Amino acid sequence: MTGTETDSDSPAPSHRRSDATRATILTAARERFAADGYERATIRAIARDAKIDPSMVMRYYGNKEGLFAAAIDIDLRLPVPEKVPKEDVGRIFVEHFVDLWEKNEVLTALLRVGVTNAAGAERMQGIFKEQLLPVALRVCPDPEQSRARAALVASQMLGMALTRYVLRFPPAVDLHREEIVAWLAPTVQRYLTAPHPG
Amino acid sequence: MTGTETDSDSPAPSHRRSDATRATILTAARERFAADGYERATIRAIARDAKIDPSMVMRYYGNKEGLFAAAIDIDLRLPVPEKVPKEDVGRIFVEHFVDLWEKNEVLTALLRVGVTNAAGAERMQGIFKEQLLPVALRVCPDPEQSRARAALVASQMLGMALTRYVLRFPPAVDLHREEIVAWLAPTVQRYLTAPHPG
DNA sequence: AGTGTTGGCCAACGAATGTTGGCAACCTGG
DNA sequence: CCAGGTTGCCAACATTCGTTGGCCAACACT
User: Which of A30, A137, B69, B87 counts the highest number of beta carbons within 10 A?
Assistant: First the structure.
C-alpha cells in the first residue's frame, strides 16, 4: 500500500541524491517529537523545519507512524555488567543514562511520544524488555526478581528524565551531573543488587 | 469573552439544575484526559461520554483549557511531617502516594497532560512547588538542600507512576502495593533525610 | 397566566491535519 | 541526445477539531 519500496537497507550504501533530505527529515522529526510529542508534532511543521514539502515525508516514510518508527531507533548501548565491578554497577548505569539523555534528544522524543501514543508506549516496552531486562538478569542475585528490579531501575531513571527534561521542574533542572549520579547511584545499586526488603 | 459568568464559587451552594451535568462533564473529562492526554481527549468525545452536546462543555467551561483547569484540581493532602516519626517519613510518603494514584485517575490525567501540554506542565510545577516543597522544607536537615531533595522524591514517585500507570511496563504493573512501599520507602527516606552523598 | 431565565441540542464555521495525485525539473545511463 | 527514473513542489481531498449562534422546551417567579 505504501507504494515505492526503497532499498533503504541494501548492503551497498548506494548513495542516493535524496539521502541528505532523508536525514534532514529525520533530524527535524526527532526535534519536533522531542519538543511537542506525537500529536502536536505535525508533518507540516517537520517538513517546514527540513525546508521541504510535506508530501516528501509521505513518499519517504509512508505515513506519520512510519516516520516516527524511523526517527526513534534507539540502542541504549548499556554497559556489559560482567566487565564492571559489582559494587560500581549503580554508578556506572546512572552515569551512562545521564550521558544518553544529555547527548541527544531521541530519548526525550521517545518519552514524550510514549506517554500519548500507543505505538510509542509499546516501543518503550520493547526497549525495556530487550535491552534493560537482559542486563538486569545478569546482575541481579536472584533471576526471579530481575523483572521487578529492572522495573524499579526504569522507574527511577525515567522519573529523573521526566522531571528534568520534560516537565522541567526547576530544582531538577538545576541539578548537576555529579549530584544526580551521587544521589541516584546508590538507589540503582540497591534496586539491582540489594536483598529483597521486607 | 466567555459570556455568562456563573457564580460557581458563591458561598451559598445555590443548587442549579445543571450541577449534575457539570459534574458528569468533569468526570468524563478526567477519564478522557487520563486515558488519552490533552490533544486526543477531544471535547466531542468527552461530551459523548457525558451524553450531552459538545456545546454544553463550551458554555460551562469556556474552552478546552478551562475544562482542563476545572477537571484537574488536585490537593495531594500530604501528611504533616511533624506528626510522623522521622524514621518513618519515607514509608508514610510512599504509601500516601501509592494510595493517591490507585484511588482516582486525576493524577494520571495530570501526568499525561503535563507531558504534552504546557499548561499541564506548569500545573505540575505549581503542585510541586506549593505542596511538596513546603513539606520537604520541614523534613530536610538542611533547608538549602530541600529543593533538590524534593525534586529527587518527585522523580522517584512520578517515575513509578509513569512506568506503572502510563507506560504500563508489565513488571511495574505486576508489583504489589507492599512491594512498592518496601522498595521505594528507603529511597525516599534517604532522599529526604540522609546526609548529602559524595 | 405570563414573562424572563436556564438547560439543551442542532447546524454550521474556519482552521488544521494526514494524505494523495499530478506535474515540472533534474539527473543518469545507454 | 534522449528515454526513464528520481526529486521536489503545488493543489487539493476528506476528516476532524474547537468553537459559535440560534432555536426550542422546561422551569421559576410574580
Answer: A30
pTM given for the model: 0.92
pLDDT at A32 over 60: yes
Cα–Cα dist A188/B111, whole Å: 24
CA proximity to B158, closest of A164, A147, A96: A164
pLDDT band of A159, cuts 50, 70, 90 = very high
Lowest-confidence segment of A57-71, B11-25, B33-47, B138-152 by average pLDDT: B11-25
CATH code of B19-71, in short, is 1.10.10.60
Query: Does the pLDDT of residue B15 top 50, yes or no?
Result: yes
pLDDT band at B11 (very low <50, low <70, confident <90, very high): very low
CA/C1' separation A2–D14 (Å): 19
Span B78-106, pLDDT tens digits: 999 999 999 999 999 999 999 999 998 99
> What is the spatial distance between Cα B191 and Cα B198, in angstroms, rounded to a whole number?
13
Which of B148, B166, B178 has its CB closest to that of A175?
B148
Q: Is A76 exposed, middle or buried (0-12, 13-18, 19+ CB in 10 A)?
A: middle
The one-letter code for the residue type at B187 is T
DSSP state of A53: -
Q: What is the pLDDT of residue A43?
A: 98
Is the pLDDT higher at A50 or at B7?
Answer: A50
Q: Do A128 and B157 touch (CB under 8 A)?
A: no
Among B153, B171, B172, B152, smallest CA distance to B162 is for B172
Q: What are the residue ranges spanned by the domains of chain A?
A: 19-71, 81-193
**Contact (CB, 8 A) for A13 and A22:** no
